[in-house]
Write a structure and sequence with these properties.
Blueprint lengths: L3 E5 L3 H13 L3 E5 L3 H10 L4 E5 L4 H13 L8 E4 L3 H10 L3 E4 L4 H8 L11
Parallel strand pairs: 1-2, 1-3, 3-4, 4-5
Length: about 130
């Protein structure tokens, strides 16, 4: 079973590109590009192994969705990764979401692997 990633990206073209790259690295990816509340509901119903937020566009949408996930009991411990974004926005996210992890696009796959305990994307946790 592939590790499950839920990706929030507010730019459809960027989301398609990132989804393709993650899928090629062995991850199973679900994507939300339009509605943070819909993505929140999806995650509550079927939690992934990790949630990735692209901060390049509409960072406030990502921050608020992540804060809601962090505040909900069922998803409080989900790893939340924020990709790219400007330093001021990363600071705002860090203040709102205590368990946030930050990385760059080129370091996303190694960051995912580290947060998933070093297991390859195609292997379930023991």
């Amino acid at each position: 079973m592939n590790a499950k990633v839920y990706l929030f990206s507010w730019d459809r073209q960027a989301a398609e590109s990132r989804t393709a790259a993650l899928s090629a690295s062995g991850f199973s990816v679900r994507t939300e590009c339009e509605d943070g509340a819909r993505g929140y509901g999806d995650i509550q119903r079927e939690p992934p192994d990790v949630v990735v937020f692209d901060l390049a566009r509409r960072p406030s949408h990502s921050r608020e969705t992540a804060r809601a996930l962090h505040d909900a009991g069922r998803t409080r411990r989900l790893p939340l990764i924020f990709v790219d974004g400007d330093p001021a926005e990363r600071d705002r996210v860090a203040a709102a979401v205590p368990n946030a992890t930050f990385t760059s696009s080129d370091r996303l796959v190694p960051t995912l692997q580290r947060l998933l305990g070093g297991r390859p994307p195609g292997q379930a946790e023991a």
